[in-house]
Amino acid sequence: MSDSSDPRRWRALLVLSAAQLVLMLDMSVVNVALAPVQHDLHFSPTGLAWIIDAYALPFGGLLLLAGRVADLIGRKRTFLGGLACFALSSALGGLAQTPALLIVARCVQGASAAFVAPSALALLSLLFPHPRERATAFSVWGGLRGAGVTLGVVLSGALVGLLSWRWLFFLNVPVAAALLLLAWRLLDESRIPGESRRLDVAGAVLVTSGFTLIAFGLLRTAGSSWAAPMTILALALGLLLTLLFIVVEAHDEHPLVPLPFFSSPRRSIGNLSLALFSAGLAVLFFSLPLYLQNVLGYSVLRTGLAFLPVGPTFIVMAYLSPFVIRRLGERITMGAGLSIVTVSFLLLSRLSVDASYLATVLPSLILFPLGGAMVVTAGTIAGISGTDAKNAGLAGGVNNVAQQMGMALGLAALVSLGSARSRALLARGITHSQALTSGFALSFSVTAIAVLVMAIYVFGRSATGAEHGRS
After folding, report:
1. Which pLDDT score is estimated for 219?
2. What's the rounded Cα separation, in Å, for the pair 239 and 216?
3. Structurally, how many domains does the chain consist of?
4. Given a cut of 60, is residue 313 above it in pLDDT?
5. What pTM, to 2 d.p., does this model score?
6. Does 192 fall in a domain?
7. Which residues constitute the domain of residue 214?
8. Which among 85, 34, 33 is positioned nearest to 59, based on CA atoms?
């Protein structure tokens, strides 16, 4: 499908974007179902956390390797193989009768998602090489990505309430099967042309182990102290292995990741912006549902419905983002989007035990996707800029790593600050609702500061460097 006039490209765009939606949905869809899963399969409280972590760890750890594998053996082949394994592991999860089997299924789901995500983004970037069409394509991609996160919260409440938590897994099977059939017909194969396809095994082991340990260490901080021995050990080993990976890559004739790939300021700013937005996304979708349920007394279904404005707003703004980018350029669009996200978190930092949904929560749930869609669209375009048939999969892997690690950092650093504040206030005799609210408000305040710093940096680079993205 190399012919840019081939109308199949737009159908392929919908298939690839729908696959990304499913992956994003499965990151959040089980959160609301944890209680019934614990009851049915007799999970321990500690084991329950592994339903989340078993998906997130292989997803974050394997992304860079998976992106390079897609470049070497073929992006279509990697996409189809990953999607097929995702469907099979979803069926296994729905049929699971023991905690161990469900955790294994989630682990395979996460590993499969790691191969689907960068290959899909690589195929998309090669399908739309021209700037105007690429901006439109990534607006669709970004819109469905944002809708997937929101849909996970809403769909989980509905399916668990009406049917069973098992349908959260079973539903993936027919959807993935349909996407497999359509992708097989619509996509053409692509891989690194005319070069050695030897895989850098040492680099693959080091980067996968390093990223997995870093993700594990960050995720542990959500339930334990940063000073916990296991947390320190995981983060230290992860950083050491990542540094060894850089040394190995600098001396390997056929590196897994050519280090000059990271020398592009445009790609770096795009990926950093996505990482900060993803950190904010994790804070919002972890903390706000807890506030609505534990402080304002919302039911699970009402909490899901409270998030409904996020999806449509994200989709509409993602559709408009290409026009904004053509008018203002990538970096100004990213900076403006980050600024709007900052305002949404500043509103949430004013939460109280009797805050109004209409006056405080709803405006933030409109502003967040409004700015977020601008960041995701412009950041993704910048993050895969300058790539070609040799490194499109690698670019997709790096882009997804930025988002996954951003979310892990958001949960680890920003949410843990709020949790520590709540525990300290409870120890002083403050009421449960007031302590929780104060902790959530602190998390939102620090998130606002972090996103604002990134916005200022992006605006500064826009003023000092050449702007990209106008056409």
Report:
1. 65
2. 12
3. 2
4. yes
5. 0.79
6. no
7. 201-256
8. 85
